[in-house]
Amino acid sequence: MRLKDTMPQGEFFMAIRNIPVALSLFLQYCRQQNSELMEQLYYQEDNFQEEAMCQVQKSFKQERLEDRIQVLNNAKESYMKARNEFAAKQVEDEIKLLKYQRRLEEELRRPYMDLSVHQTVHKLIVDNSHKMADQIRKEFKIPDKRYWWLRIDALAEAGEWMELDKFSKTKKPQLGMEAFVEACLKHGNKREAMKYIPRVLPDKKVQCLIQMGDLKQAAEAAFENRNEDDLNKVLRKCTLADRAIEDQIKGYKQQLAGGRR
Asked: Residues 6 or more apart from 24 whose CB is under 8 A from it?
């Protein structure tokens, strides 16, 4: 018969609390086999931090959303007792997000549950629900630069090229045009990516052209910037089929070297 079976649970907890090895083994067993018992032990010990962590883990096992939210509310209260305001705020935001996602699923008839805030905004933009995406962006205080990344990538994924071009002309851009080039290439539209090249800043243009596979223009841009490092970068990308470009780059380097004399 195990010790736990011979005495009330409270007495058992008291018995092992001063035996570190026994307590460690018991917690190891609980993590693997009986998370409820572990939560009760932390409750008995007024270990609110660990109790809250148990409750967060427990929330993922709830099938009904209402039950999950209730368990998360318990976790929030435990974090507050532990004076961990940061963790309590994270749980509060998770509850708020879950409620938003349930509303989205009801209104839009599409799956949103269990996505992160960023994934939710990204999916809303892809699904052409821009107003709701902007609402969640404001509600969860997504930084402007991060939101730009999300919007650029989502518009490119959705193939909304006209909307992407319109967005690129926003008065106060948070990202350079290279972000638009990368998004277009990521989603398989090289022609659209080329439209942004003239608006890419000189120090970013060579890398964008390399990504597009246009080594000739990349070499020309590097020479125009009189940047030997960028010329070498293009040279390293050349293959046997790019012999003419290699010769062109060598000529550019000789001109730059001559200009320094």
From this structure: none
Do 98 and 79 contact (CB within 8 A), yes or no? Answer: no
Rounded distance between C-alpha atoms, residue 34 and residue 162, angstroms:
55
- 42 sits in which H/E element: helix 35-44
CA distance linking residue 251 with residue 247, whole number of Å: 6
**Residue 210, amino acid:** I
Quote the crossing angle between the two packed helices 243-260 and 215-224, to the nearest 10°. Answer: 0
Per-residue pLDDT of the chain (261 residues; tens, 9 = 90+): 344 444 455 555 555 566 565 556 655 655 555 556 666 666 666 677 878 887 887 888 888 999 999 989 988 988 888 899 999 999 999 999 999 999 999 999 999 999 999 999 999 999 999 999 999 999 999 999 999 999 999 999 999 999 999 999 988 888 999 999 999 999 999 999 999 999 999 889 999 999 999 999 999 999 998 999 999 999 999 888 889 999 999 898 888 877 655
Q: What is each CA distance from 234 to 206, 214, 251, in whole angstroms?
A: 8, 10, 13
Lookup result for tokens 């879950």: 98
Residues 6+ apart with CB under 8 A from 173: 148
Q: Which helix (H) or strand (E) holds 12?
A: helix 9-16
Work out the angle between the directed axes of helices 85-108 and 117-126 (0-180°, nearest 10).
Answer: 20
- The per-residue b/e assignment along 227-240, b for 16 or more CB within 10 angstroms, e otherwise, is bbebbebbbeebee
